[in-house]
Amino acid sequence: MNNGNMDKARKLVRTIFSATKSIDNINIKAQVWSSNSLGKVYVTNINNMEETDMITTEVIEEGFWNLTPTHKAITLASKTAKHMKGEKKLIIMITDGVPNYAKNSFTIPRATVDKMTKNAFTKALRVTPNFMCILLGREHPYTNKTMKFIFGERRFMRVDNFDDASERIIKNFKQLVMRTLK
């Protein structure tokens, strides 16, 4: 994500923490992830509202960390959810684009990365069927088609801007959480 979108994602995660603070038995974890052209994935774990300041494009290691290894993020999120207490779990993924990945400075073809991501998503649904992807950004035919292929119509939401996302999350999130917990 670029800095502007990372700011939006940070605000959205803060909104999620705020929207759920009055609901008992809710444990929220967030993960920020990116990768470099060698295929190394960098992850920052966010466990509370105070740690949302760590949602940034800054990476400790040098180099460009501008790729979106969505398949790896889904795998990590489902492993995290699997090890969390409770039976009912919800994974919300916030992104600003389609999956892309490179390994050993070789860019993996988009169709391959899309299939890898779809497979990771299918496996994640075994951990929890409660999975939602929020795409921050303008509508684009390729992006919408790709994300709907991976996540399906029901689990994919695209919002043009943070205000739309925040309003929809505040309005619908508590209902979504309560449905998940039933």
Key words describing this protein structure:
single chain, alpha/beta, 3-stranded parallel β-sheet, two-stranded antiparallel sheet, 44% helix, 17% strand
Tell me what you see in this structure.
With 182 residues, the protein is of the alpha/beta class. It has five helices and seven strands, in the order αββαβββαβαβα. The chain has helices spanning 3-20, 70-82, 110-127, 141-151, 162-181, and strands at residues 30-35, 41-46, 91-95, 102-103, 106-107, 131-136, 156-159. The strands form three sheets. It has a three-stranded parallel β-sheet with strand order 3-6-7. A two-stranded antiparallel ribbon has the order 1-2. Helix 4 (141-151) links the parallel strand 6 (131-136) and strand 7 (156-159). The longest helix is centred in the C-terminal third of the chain and has 20 residues, at 162-181.
